[in-house]
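Dissemination and training. As part of the outreach component of the grant, students in the summer workshop were shown how a complex can be specified as a set of sequence lines and then modelled as a single object. The example used during the hands-on session is reproduced here so that future cohorts can follow it. Participants entered these lines:
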Amino acid sequence: MADAEGNLGVNELALLVMLVVVASLLSISVEWHVAAACLWLVHMLVSVWLAVVATPELAVSKAVTGTTVCLLLIPSLRAFSQARAAVGTTGMRRLVVVAGTQATDEPFMLVGAFLAAAAAIALSFAFPLVEGASNFAWYWLTLLGLLLIMLSRDIVRIGLGLLLLLNAVDLLDTMVTRNQGVTAIGARSMVAIVLALALSVIWGRTTSVRSRSEKADLPSLTVTDPMPPQRLPPFGNPGGDRYQGGSR
Amino acid sequence: MTLEALRAIWTPSFLTFVSPIVAAALGGLFGRLGRSGQRVAALVVLCGFSAGAYGAWQAPVSALTAITAVPGSLPPIGRLQILVVSMGGALISIYHVLTKRDGEVAVIASLVVAATSASAFAGDSLRVAGAGIHLAVLLVAMLMATERGDWQGGVAGTAYLTMASIGAITLVAGFALADVQKVSPGGLVTDAFVVAVLSTGFALSIGIVPLYFWVPSASQRPGAGGSMLALAVVVPASLGLMLATLTALPQLSGPIASSHLLTIGGLLTAIFGAVGTLAPGRLRRRIGYALMGNLGAVLLGFGTLTRIGVAGALVTLAHHCLVAIVLIGSATEIETPPSAPDQALVDEDGIESGLRLGVRPILIAREQGWVARGAFVLAAIAMSGVPPFGGFASRWAVMQALALSDWRLAFALGIASLATTYALLVSVPGRRNVVGSRQSSTRSERFLLVLSVVACLWGFLPGNILDVAHSATSQLTFLKPF
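and obtained this result:
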């Protein structure tokens, strides 16, 4: 805990250092094992943090929520990773586009993470909204989440950024209102779990549609694909537009 | 749990939560039992909606109060919100069943209605209300991604999930900051700062210019069910949360009134929506812009901060829900290739021949007779607010409130509405783009036509509707008393 002069105790400092390391790893990770483990660790560290500065009930709730979120995300993370692995063996152009060029992303995101850390330190001193070191924790998670959402080129990282952002605001909310009701805690946990479910569904759907498109040699566009395939007719994408409104 | 506790829970208000969720579960179960099962599922879901709406109308106090002992109540505005989203969900489910499409639209619609109802019931507990809206957003994003079999739904679902989720998360941050401001007034966090954060959150959630990015994509790319739920159910529920926020945090109405934030946002949204509708584009994309412009009128009504303006905006919102369903549904019917019985008239070869002739795929429309086009045209006219058609009932009140503050606002809104209607009327694919033909209209098209007639007749029932909305708004303490 922080003392009267505002210095951090060992527990909080150790937690902050671990949080910075784990969240940075999450932002630059390529392997799905690392991403899933880092995501789970972020939840656990926030949970321990809540146990130190808030109530044990909130900490348990966060731990259970984080574990559920990770369990929901692991299958789709693995599927996406396998799709990326196929790029190296078959050289499918569209998967390269979807997966992003990892070699350039990693150092870019690492620099971004350092910048976010610097900004979080500055903001936590200039605009301390909550008490003590929690300022840095929520600023750091918020900035890293926004960074992932705004700068990433693949939907997995965008999803991970959303989860980080949700954690950050959750932390801020908890620090502001310590004695929250069961309904509020449950509602927030439900949102996190359903967000993970939605991300899992969308990742899985994108992967499966892409695989089908590759097999049938149909055009495959995603949010990360800025250019239409070259073999399309000049007027658009007949494969996609033909099925407006779902299957009959 | 004792019998007394069960009796305490079994209130009409409890129906509002439990019945849609039970209906969704049963609907999901029956929906897997073939065509007959889907009909039973639709019936169950409709019963769930009806029970939920009945519970909301009858309940004086929230069941949440009895269960969790947290502060919570159902104000008249909340009842109207639940009524509108239940009506929207029911109409979307009926339309989906009539189209005989596969998918979980009815089930998701039921869950979305339950989530938005929970948001309305939360009352002063803004975090729970925000969580309800966020849950609805996530459910709709999942539906968008899975409703169609191609990549477009995934794109729309991802965009909607990302932008609307950031909006919902920003709202929670804004609620927390409002608490910080309440605890330490005069500190770092000011009312204006809280208003700025909350405005960003609402703009992202609702699709207000300049943070409207997800709206055109959500209107064009996913299946009809996902688009309808996003634009006709979740958006009105988010606007209901906006009113709940202003009720719970009345200190924010001062900065909002002085900065004219809602008025500027509404005007920009109405004008940009009209311009976007006029621009060439796919039919459903233009509908997205038109619906966005219609929400500009709602925001302008809210921005007056008067009872008559907000009452008119609420009626406009209910009308918006109906019109959105008709426009998206009829546009989908116009753009969708024929169903199985019509394959003899228009088949894949026919479409391919159209492609070879250089016709853009989106403009390959069936000749759906007069039914779908008629529904589309009637809904477009109803949205214009031109007397004596539909929007007149609500727009008149908004225009009156605007004219009392600045007649130029009312003039600009009228011009934007007329431009939007004109753009919609000329955007229907013409005869030259039609490949093949079809003589009979489907049940879904006839259903949409009936809804469009109701939307047009909306204007002939101004008194009763406005009275209900006006009595509801009279309990909003932050409004000016006229």
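Residues 1-7, 89-101, 217-248 of chain A have pLDDT under 50 and may be disordered. Students were then asked to discuss how this feature might be tested experimentally.
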